[in-house]
Amino acid sequence: MSLTTQIEQSLKQLAEETEQAKQSQFFKQYLATMSKFWDYSCRNQLLIHLQSPNATKVAGYHRWKQLKRTVKKGETGIKILAPIIRTINNEEEISAFRPATVFDVSQTEGEPLIEIDIDIKGNDRQDILNKLIQYCAKLSVKLEFKTLSDGLYGYNSNGLIAINSAKSVNTQASTLIHEIAHELLHKNSNPSSRQQREIQAEAVAYAVSNCLGIQSKGFNYLALYDADYKKIMENLALISEASKKIMSEIRETA
Length: 254
Fold this sequence. Notes:
Elements: H1 3-23, H2 25-34, H3 42-51, E1 58-59, H4 61-66, E2 69-71, E3 78-88, E4 91-104, E5 108-110, H5 126-138, E6 142-146, E7 154-157, E8 160-164, H6 169-186, H7 194-211, H8 218-224, H9 229-233, H10 236-252
Helix pairs in contact: 1-7, 1-8, 1-10, 5-6, 6-7, 6-10, 7-10
């Protein structure tokens, strides 16, 4: 089977698995849980970061109670600005802002939250990770392995890729493929949306991981970005091109 055919089959499999993930009862429950968290603006994101740089999921006291978790005794809340909505001529608009207090999940205790699993088990593909590290050097991309917040696997910013060193070797390899895909596809171009960029990068990670025998859970990741069969498959050409570049580099690296 040719590499092109293998990549195309992997992409079709990813598209089908993503559709199934979105329709699952578990995923619907996850979205219902996530909807209870504070949907904060850029301004509030900055306020949260300044007060608690490691915050991942924030909600008010009563929202945490709805999720069957309580704020730990002695915890100091994170101050944000909550909009005051008024209705004029049957239309809602923000009339002012008021101070509000939220707490990060790390400041609470109780029943565990529903989580979407995208971790990959296993530490047996250090050889692939080493080849990807060499590829980053060839691309003149600075690479760092460091502890990131638990929900963050890696990121790409201005020629720097950071990978969460607390994750398994196989998860690190798949994440690095994702970030290299961003570098190849988006460094000098800007697709219309973050959704499109993430669909492209994660589909590359899924296709390459499949070719290498690393089981990927990219369908769960893409379900979070509301991807569907059409949105995935319409990117086939770009995904295939980037996947073949990475696979060729891995095969050529001694």
